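Hi L.,

You mentioned the student needs an example of a multi-chain input paired with its predicted structure. This one should do, with 872 residues in total across all chains.
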Amino acid sequence: MAERTISWEPRNENEIIGTDVERVDGLEKASGHAKYSTDVNPKGTLHVRLLTCPHAHARIASLDVETAKKVDGVKSVHVFPGREPGLEIHFQGHPIVAVAAETIGQAAEGVSAIEIEYEVLEHLVDEFDLAGAVKTGRAKPLRITEEGSIGQAFAEADAVVSGFYGIPSITHMCLEPHGSHCQWPGDSELLVHLSTQNVSGTPGQFAQPLGVDAANVTVNCEYIGGGFGSKFSADEWGVACAAISKETGRPVRLHLDRATELQIAGGRPSGFANVTIAADENGKITAWDSHHWGTSGPDGGTISQVPYVIVAPNRRVQVTGIVTNTGPARAWRAPNHPQACALTDTAIDDLAAELEMDPLDVFKANLDLTWNPEIYAGEIDVGAELMDWKNLWQPRGKWEEGGELHGLGMAIHTWGGRAGPGNCTVRVNRDGTVETFAGTQDLGTGTKTVIAMTLAETFGVPLSKVKVNIGSSKYPACGGSGGSTTVGGVSGPHRRAALNALWQIFDLVAEKHNVEADSLKAVGGKIVSGDETVCTWDEAARLVGPMGLEIQGKGPEDDGLTDQQVGGVQMVHAAVDPETGVVRIVKYVAVQDMGLIINPVGARSQILGSMIMCIAYALSEERIYDEVTGRFINSNLKDYKLPRIGDIGELVVELYQPDSEYQRGVVGLGEPPVISGGAAISNAVANALGVRVPVLPLTPKHVLDAARNA
Amino acid sequence: MSKKQVVTATINGREETFLCEPRQTLLEVLRDVLRMTGTKEGCSNGNCGACTVMLNGRPVDSCLVLAVECENAELETVEGLAAGDQLTPVQNAFLEGAALQCGVCTPGFLVSATALLRENPEPTEHDVRWYLAGNLCRCTGYDKIVRAVLDAAERRRNAETV
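Structure written out for the whole complex:
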């Protein structure tokens, strides 16, 4: 007897949810037929290049664009609003003029023809330079928070350790750069193909500055080549693209070139900290005292969440944001958390070394200071077994093998992952096919597949009967895909709508076949009552009539389909070449909870990707500004060092889903696994080398400097 | 500006004649002139491999090749890998092995991996990692890509063709 309450099926009754399902948009992507924003290119499209400011801090002295207008092929020279003599510019790459031409080469020639002069001003680009920031008035007022009594706790502690830790700014580095293709099918009707994480939220951002009704703006994004938190906005270059299209009466494509993409379209704030941490002889943390600083660029923000996850009962946290002439920050996957973890779990690891304890035991001894000791304890045990931690771990600097120094390190993390707002229209057609329309987007994370699985499971039909329509602002509105809100944000509304549709179909079947509606279930393409097949799904669907059956779903609701807050543990075995300082990842284990897992293969892919992003920012990735010229000198993919396919070692992913997790419902996954890898890798290298390499990334130079200074 | 040049090349088995400026890259011509947008632009300076195509049987970054150099050349792009709906073992292995996420690096990886398997039908894991080092993935599927290419090599040995 099935009750009509909104819920997921019992875990062992699922046919599709919880099984590995190939992504439903894979064929288009693997055949080259998927159309990204950068691929929308109808005949007549104009191409745009930007004139951007080459200086970190400057004032426009003069600007003359007339010569650019005469360049062969140039159709429009668009000066961004407010870019006039006297305007102060605060970072390199700031867009000033957009030139549209028949070809990209002509647009570049147009840019070269612009006459512009700058008054160059003094800059600060060294994010670590707190003293310099204070001296030049670029430090924001110190903020202090205190809890308990650190003085007494430090006095009574058995071990007190002080250290310095840091993690520099990195960029988002989306492989598909920011930008759009714009055209005006009617005088006041705008069609935008935008590379965006936010199809439902961006039409208004175009409408307002362009002076058109939001109802007349359509934003589409069927595929997107990476966002990581940097693509929620129309951006002023998006609005410029639409304005040029309006002015010229031509379709226009404007995507940032790679250097500009790195300079202005996304950055993660840095964090540097002096930390003192104390514990009793059993490794129980009693006090934390830190001062951290860093930058989010010209607005001078810095990070939060310090200390991270393990929160000492007695603590003082001092924070200084500094104003720098570097590219402005955007939300980078799990904002604040990777930095906070890299400043906290490293200090805990150093504390363990001071106590001559295995750090795994110190983490375990302090789980009561976390939000959920049970999840972490379970995950640490699973991770330790996968890593063979207890057999392999040795005190710092003791494990040498094959000319390399080896070590283990671990760290833990947390994230919210609550379902975001979402709406959908689910339609059951008379031929038994199912369609849905939802204004969400698939960042490659498998959103479309998760929706298809949710509907197929609920209606008991194969995935081939389900068509998922997403990626348009004309579909029912959904929240932006950020903060791990999407999987809950789409699966909840779709499950609700599908159950409500199914119950209506059950009523029709019950009436026709003279059975109890509440006894019916939809499984394997049939409607069954107990062991009896009442009719096929297609026969049932025919009962909905010629118009089909359309039901709206919305969320989030407090009905148990979704939940929030996850843990997660990562452990790393690293090897260091003592002569070259090169760090090699030998094995990297991630154990991650996420409530009910809809598509395990998709979840694993996201975690693997996160682990490689962790390897990137732990070992090689950083935004480097030249202090003399103020320029972002590695804003290209040769010098902005990301791991290649040979740089990653053995990756082991364990999806942590005891029944208690399944019963929580769905929780988002995008952010959590990208958090603790930096700290875990740093801890593994400290264990190998015998000393802490204080600042990420652990480049050969940083490693050798730390070893030399030990 | 120099005059446009006429270039004739075989692209995915079909002879194509196109007009291009001497300064235009093969990537630009593929995407903006011939509207074959399966080949992706990642960096435009040969560092990411997203624009990899085969030129006379060898993988190249099409952003580093001038289109006028392609007179009489045999070109193969991601669109030419499959025969209609019939995907190649490499494409199938990527799909079934979940070796792609956002998908922008995927065409380049598919072309490079195809080139590898034609050159070396029985690569070791090290061979795969070495050969594909020029292809950058950000979001990122390296682990599954390695497995997919090894899987494709096995499928190919089991009588399928690359």
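You could point out the following to them. The CA atoms of residues 610 and 673 of chain A lie 6 Å apart. The mean pLDDT of chain A is 97.

Best wishes,
N.
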